[in-house]
Amino acid sequence: MKITKVAVAVLRVPVEVPYTAGGRTVDANWHVVARLITSDGVEGIGYVVYPRPELMTTIGQAARELGEHLIGMSVLEPEAAWERLARRGDWVGPGGLLHTADAFRRLLEARAVDVVILDLARVGGITPWRKIAALAEAHRVPVCGHVVPEIQVHLLSAVPNGHLVEYVPRSAGILTAMPRIENGELVAPDRPGLGLELDETAVRRYEIT
């Protein structure tokens, strides 16, 4: 399961109705899509979405540069891959208040919150998300998911203290389908993995670099 190829694309997906967020007019959702291919022919995808083109273009370039250092790494050893990337990149990690397990631990021990809202990208991915959710459970505090509902629905369904998911379907334009809503609840797909599939026609249409 060695990585043999990493391909990165930056996509601009227009929104039907522009809106204002953080003082900015948002007319498109920008995605950085990364594809990993292994020596066994297995392909995996990952993506991040945000409405700021200058930031996403920079992330796309950084992902290409760092992706080169993943060649030859095993997909079954993610910690080793992160260690190699940390040595190559001039950064430490997401950091910042309430983006790390330790920050959440201090907050929970102080009993300063009634609910924890987790941003999957900023806490560092699925594994840190699960660790923080476990901390919250130990303190009998529910957790909610912030954006990327197509992934958050799986995580929240897998923990006993999962509470609410924020339904902001920014990536609907590049996926063949989003999790469906039934009676006001988001239903986790029962397909393998996260149950997500890229719409390859849409990816080609919206790719800019």
Question: Brief description of this entry?
Answer:
The chain is an alpha/beta fold and about 210 residues long. It has seven helices and eight strands; from the N terminus they run E-E-E-H-H-H-E-H-H-E-H-E-E-E-H.
Give the distance, in angstroms, between the N- and C-terminal Cα atoms: 28 Å
- CATH topology type of the largest domain: Enolase-like, domain 1
CATH class group of the largest domain: Alpha Beta
CATH superfamily of the largest domain: Enolase-like, N-terminal domain
Structural class: alpha/beta
Roughly how much helix do the residues carry, as a percent range?
A: 25-40%
Average predicted confidence as pLDDT: 87
Share in β-strands: 25-35%
Q: What is the tally of beta strands?
A: 8
Radius of gyration: 18 Å
Q: What about the largest sheet?
A: 3 strands, antiparallel
Order of strands across the widest beta sheet? 1-2-3
What would you say the CATH architecture of the largest domain is? 2-Layer Sandwich
Count of domains: 2
With helices defined by DSSP (H or I, 4 residues minimum), what is the helix count? 7
Give the H and E element order.
Answer: EEEHHHEHHEHEEEH
Describe the protein's architecture and organization:
The protein has 209 residues and is an alpha/beta fold. The chain folds into two domains: 3-92, Enolase-like, domain 1, CATH 3.30.390.10; 101-168, no CATH class. It is built from seven helices and eight strands. It has a three-stranded antiparallel β-sheet, with helices on one face. A three-stranded parallel β-sheet has the order 4-5-6. Strand 5 (143-146), helix 6 and strand 6 (162-165) form a beta-alpha-beta unit. Helix 3 (101-109) packs parallel to helix 5. The longest helix has 15 residues, at 53-67. It is globular and about 45 Å long. 21% of the residues are buried. Residues 91-97 have low confidence and may be disordered.
